[in-house]
Amino acid sequence: MPTIAVFDSGFGGLTVLRALLPLIPDARFLYLGDTARLPYGAKSQQTIARYALSSAAFLLAQGAQMLVVACNTASALALDELKAALPIPVIGVIEPGAQAANALARHPSSLFPLPSSLASVLVLATAATVQSNAYTKACAALGLTIHEKACPLLVPLVEEGWTDHPVTAEVLRIYLAEALAEAPSVQTLVLGCTHYPLIKPLIERVLRELGHPLHIVDSAAATAIAAAKVLPAVSSEGEAIPPTFYATDSIEKFQRLGSAFLGQALPEVKLIDLGG
Ligand code: DGL
């Protein structure tokens, strides 16, 4: 069985693991949430790359044969360094997310007819992801027009468990109203942060209130599919076992909040120290 490592700065990447589990049921999964150093989204490229590389080195030492970078910020700012440093396949979330948005925009007949204006997308992400222009590059390569909006307050609100809270709704109202004023023609919204799927119902509600419903792309499923495609390149041996969870800070908080991201209770979580 292949050993697949999934890495995020915190809990958000569990939404990607949730998509991976049914898709690759016979794999051994390792999940690392670098909760002690979260948020990555407010830090510099050098720091994000350093954190991502040390997290990846730990997972490699645990036997990882593939790394899924289930963090938009680490994917946006450290994917090239990770690919250069690791002797295993590395999958990020940006490209699959952009491709999912493109599929929605370009191949409407496969599901249901959609207007061509879907080719204009809004990406909500952390400040570091927006500054990196990673989504702009990935979407531009596919011919999509893109508007990016940094939403720095959303990660702390989700981390607090305020996924259906009036304060989170008000913050979303402000961010979305600003973004839609700047890019009124967008019809597709990419959730460019692995924390945001947890507030997708709230985002949909606020968009309806603003009178501007959007088609929402969550890159978790697209990333899982991209990882499954790379699998044949990974050697398989051993027997399937349940996922192993690692975190660099409070195990209790990881188990409590992580279950909402994973959609099921988390068993044991191992505390590890990756330094500062
Ligand atoms: N996991 C990060 C992302 O997807 C959000 C949390 C953070 O800022 O570390 O961008």
Describe this entry's structure for a reader.
- With about 280 residues, the protein is α/β, with parallel strands linked by helices.
- About 45% of the residues lie in helices and about 15% in strands.
- It contains eleven helices and ten strands.
- The protein has helices at about 15-25, 45-60, 70-85, 95-105, 125-130, 135-140, 155-160, 165-180, 200-210, 220-230, 250-260, and strands spanning about 5-10, 30-35, 65-70, 90, 120-125, 145-150, 190, 215-220, 245, 270.
- The strands form two sheets. It has a six-stranded parallel beta sheet, sandwiched between helices.
- α1 (about 15-25) packs across α10 (about 220-230), α4 (about 95-105) runs parallel beside α6 and α4 (about 95-105) packs across α10 (about 220-230).
- The radius of gyration is 18 Å and the shape is globular.
- The two termini are about 35 Å apart.
- Bound molecules: D-glutamic acid (DGL).
- D-glutamic acid (DGL) binds next to α3.
Q: Topology, please?
A:
Elements (H helix, E strand, L loop, with lengths): L2 E6 L5 H10 L4 E6 L11 H17 L4 E4 L2 H14 L4 E2 L2 H13 L13 E6 L1 H6 L1 H8 L3 E6 L3 H6 L6 H17 L5 E5 L7 H10 L5 E4 H12 L13 E4 L3 H12 L6 E3 L5
Parallel strand pairs: 1-2, 1-3, 2-9, 3-4, 5-6, 5-7, 7-8, 9-10
Helix pairs in contact: 1-10, 2-3, 4-6, 4-10, 8-9
